[in-house]
Design brief:
By secondary structure, the protein is α/β, with parallel strands linked by helices. Helix content is 44%, strand content 22%.
Length: 100
């Protein structure tokens, strides 16, 4: 089981430093392609997506969240969102209900 991240350049670069494969998305088309690739790979157990990118393809993300259970999707704040940044581990733990 692998993690994959879809987000802005800084998020993808930062998570790649700890071994998480990532795909950068700067527009809705790139976001849609990255989303589809992440879902196609059955090795991906957790998809981490920034809120900014998720908003670009919100209907696809919401449709998936309300109909599927695997892989797990964790939406994290992007640098531009201005929301309070939480520790990635805490966000994943909250999403799966298990402490990693």
């Amino acid at each position: 089981m692998r993690y994959v991240v879809i987000g802005d350049e800084d998020t993808v670069l930062g998570l790649s430093l700890v071994g998480v494969f990532g795909m950068q998305a700067t527009n809705a088309e790139e976001a849609r392609i990255a989303w589809e690739k992440a879902l196609e790979d059955k090795e991906n157990g957790i998809i981490i997506i920034t809120d900014e990118v998720a908003n670009m393809i919100r209907s696809s993300v919401d449709r998936y969240l309300f109909s599927e259970t695997f892989p797990l999707v964790v939406e994290i704040p992007s640098q531009k969102s201005g929301s309070k940044r939480s520790d990635l581990r805490a966000l994943v733990n909250q999403a799966i209900g298990v402490s990693l």
